[in-house]
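Structure first, sequence second, as always.
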């Protein structure tokens, strides 16, 4: 499939330069110059996924890197009883699928679209070639992997040692870091995941999430408005629960 055709099905009227600018926002490509970004744009294709579509399945072969151009996805693990644990929620310009690309093993988790999403996909051979040609991509990838490993370690520690209130707060801090908008010390998280999804992120129940959010609101720590949540004093909230 040609790049030209892929751009047309991605979004009519877009130019190659628009996708170069999009790639410039992706952490692992941010240090590349215009010519190099154009080569990256020419190395992949764009694909659309409907809400609730399975983008990757656990145990699939790791043959591509995915970059989120639009939308939001969740990285999940499921047990034999289909109980879901959400490992991460990602949106533009996050990427995923890099672990299986590097070690050549199968995928370690499922990735599901939380809303209609559009992804830029680079096949394994193309991506490994990019790493060889552009050392800056390798360096930025290592930085991102280190950041994710550090965040995962902190989350595991928090969810294993803290009480229910601490677990919920840890998830809110993660969402604030990933998606929050800060203004005068107040962080707003728009379109908060559902209670079930928050429970799956915190390793607790839907009822505990609901009860804890109401408790935080009564204490004046957060404000709830529809699907939006505001952490009133973000620095104080961090000090209390980090």
């Amino acid at each position: 499939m040609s790049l030209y055709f892929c751009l047309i099905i991605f979004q009519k009227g877009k130019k190659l330069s628009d996708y170069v600018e999009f790639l410039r926002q992706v952490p692992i490509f941010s240090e590349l110059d215009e010519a190099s970004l154009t080569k990256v744009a020419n190395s992949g294709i764009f694909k659309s996924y409907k809400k609730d579509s399975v983008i990757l399945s656990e145990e699939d072969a790791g043959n591509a890197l995915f970059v989120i151009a639009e939308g939001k996805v969740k990285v999940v693990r499921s047990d034999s009883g289909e109980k879901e644990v959400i490992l991460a929620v990602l949106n533009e310009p996050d990427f995923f699928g890099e672990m299986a690309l590097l070690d050549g093993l199968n995928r370690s988790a499922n990735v599901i679209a939380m809303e209609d999403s559009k992804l830029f996909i680079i096949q394994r051979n193309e991506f490994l070639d990019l790493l060889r040609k552009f050392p800056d991509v390798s360096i930025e990838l290592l930085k991102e992997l280190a950041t994710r490993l550090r965040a995962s370690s902190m989350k595991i520690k928090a969810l294993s040692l803290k009480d229910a209130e601490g677990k919920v707060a840890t998830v809110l801090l993660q969402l604030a870091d990933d998606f929050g908008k800060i203004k005068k010390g107040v962080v707003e998280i728009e379109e908060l995941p559902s209670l079930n999804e928050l429970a799956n992120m915190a390793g607790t129940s839907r009822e505990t999430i609901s009860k804890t959010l109401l408790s935080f609101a009564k204490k004046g720590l957060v404000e709830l408005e529809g699907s939006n949540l505001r952490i009133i004093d973000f620095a104080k909230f961090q000090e209390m629960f980090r």
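Margin note: The radius of gyration is 19 Å.
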